[in-house]
Structures are given as C-alpha cells and as structure tokens.
Amino acid sequence: MNLSTKYLQAKYLYLSNELAKLPPAFLSIHNGHEIAYIKNTDSPKIQKTQHHTNTKEGAELKEIALLRKKIKHKLKSLTTQYGINTNNIKISIKDDCALPISYRSKFINDSNPYEKKDNYLHNGIQMRSRLEIIIAEILDSLELEYMYEVEININGVVYHPDFVVFLPELGTCFIIECLGKTDDLSYIYRNNERIGLYMYAGLYPNQNLLLFCGTKNSIPTTISIRHDIIHLVNNLAEKLVVYE
After folding, report:
1. In whole angstroms, what is the distance from residue 182 CA to residue 191 CA?
2. Rounded to an integer, what is the distance from CA 1 to the centroid of its chain?
3. How many CB atoms lie within 10 A of CB 54?
4. How far is CA 149 from CA 28, 112, 144, 146, in A?
5. Largest CA-CA distance found in the chain, in angstroms, rounded
6. Is residue 128 helix, strand or coil?
7. Residues 82-102: what's their mean pLDDT?
8. For a pLDDT cut of 70, what percent of the chain falls above it?
9. Angle, helix 5-21 to helix 222-240, in steps of 10 degrees
C-alpha cells in the first residue's frame, strides 16, 4: 500500500504555500566566506544587503535559505517519485478533527516522567522498546513529522502518547500507542482506562489513533505497521480533503 494521490496532492499544495510565504533567502560564498542574502525578485541582480552567516542576521537568513532548500527538495521528490501534478487543482481542508494541528504549539517533546530503563536510541531520542524504534523508522521513511511522548491536555485530561504524528497538509494530528505487554493482565488493566479516555476525547482506533500490540516475545511485523500507518493517513485524506 502507498500513500494516496489525494494525500500527496494536499502535501504538495501545502508545501508550495509554505515556500511562497518564505522570503527569497539564499546562500553563497564570497571571498571564502559563507554569506546569506535576499534576492530581489524584481531584478536579476542581488540586493546589496548581504550578511555573513556567523552574524545574527546572517544566521537567521541561513535558516530560511536551508528551509527553502528542504521544501524544494520535497516538492521535487513528490514530482519525480510519485508524479504528482497539481496544475489546475484546488483543494480545501475540512475543519473536522479531534486533534487539530494547532495543538502542536502546546506539546512538549519527550515529557513522559516515567523512567526509561532500556537503551533504545533513535536520532538521539531514548525510546522504551524495539517496537517504538521500528515505528519511528517507518515514520521517517514516510517523511511524516512526529513528536515522542509529548504531554497532551484534552478536556482537562493529561496524556503522554508514544507518538503524535503531524499532518499539517490535512490540518490534523494522530496518535500512535504501543502496547507491548498484552500477555500481562495487570498491564492490560492499567491501559484499559487510557484507551477509554482517548475514545471519550474523540480519538478512535484506526481513525485518528493507532494501537500496535505486542507481547513479551512478539511484535507486529514492519510490513503490517507500515500498512496501518499509510491506511490511516489515506483515510484521513479521504475524509478531510475536498476538491474545489
């Protein structure tokens, strides 16, 4: 299963809009020094105002220039890898989600207070299990942004989900929880209430919540995890994206 055309079109248009919002900042080398500058869009000549990137102004422009480059790379990838063409396509996104993307500013990354005893590392983040490492690797491969063990307050209830995955092109987020000891009855009892609270907050399995269950000696396959993540993303795109 692959990410749907509807989702990829929404992503392309979102990235195009984000690129258009950025100042035309670029990087160059002058007399052996890296400089950042703003290109004059009304003239092929570069504006005289330039900054070395070791200055505050230059560092800020460099950050913008690198972000522009990153977005352009993603747009090119969508075109070459998936053949996405958004010519004459206009879409709108329904405002119909339990976990809107606006919540992102409230999240604190890696905020679960419970001690981590095992040394599972991914991109410098200490995780709690091999299953979480696999999920993080799949999210990276799909170029889906996420935060790990953030603190979420929904209707006054505090949660620490394993992953919150961001879909800014759809205006929403979804949650992934790893239940790694479903062969332990006391573990099941402890997590029953948490899942019930998610559902009470409008977060339902396979809609905006994914539950990956394992036991002491087994976890879901990489293929099945990837399939379920893609399936949920595609379903959200089908639900939220409207062609105009």
Report:
1. 10
2. 19
3. 11
4. 39, 6, 16, 10
5. 70
6. coil
7. 88
8. 91
9. 70
pLDDT band at 176 (very low <50, low <70, confident <90, very high): very high
- Both tokens assigned to 144: 């889906």
**In the numeric block, which tokens belong to residue 20?**
């258009």
Q: Give the chain's radius of gyration (CA, Å).
A: 21
Per-residue pLDDT tens for 100-135?
Answer: 998 888 787 766 666 666 678 888 888 878 899 999
* Residue 54 tokens, joined: 């070791």
In the block, tokens 């696999």 appear at 134
Q: Which two tokens stand for residue 81?
A: 């890898």
- Residue-level pLDDT at 210: 95
Question: What global pTM score does this model have?
Answer: 0.87
How many whole angstroms separate alpha carbon 158 and alpha carbon 161?
Answer: 10
pLDDT tens digits for range 95-106: 888 889 988 887
Question: How many alpha carbons fall within 13 Å on the CB side of residue 193?
Answer: 7
| Cα–Cα nearest to 179, from 144, 207, 145, 219 | 219
Query: Is 70 exceeded by the pLDDT of residue 163?
Result: yes
Amino acid 218: pLDDT: 85
> What is the total residue count of the chain?
244
Buried b (16+ CB within 10 A) or exposed e, 84-116: bebeeeebebeeebbbebebeeebeeeeeeeee
Residue 71 has pLDDT above 60, yes or no: yes
Q: Where are the beta strands (DSSP E) in the chain?
A: 25-30, 33-39, 46-52, 91-93, 120-122, 125-127, 145-148, 152-154, 157-159, 163-167, 172-179, 209-213, 241-243
Q: How far is CA 113 from CA 48, 87, 160, in A?
A: 51, 48, 9
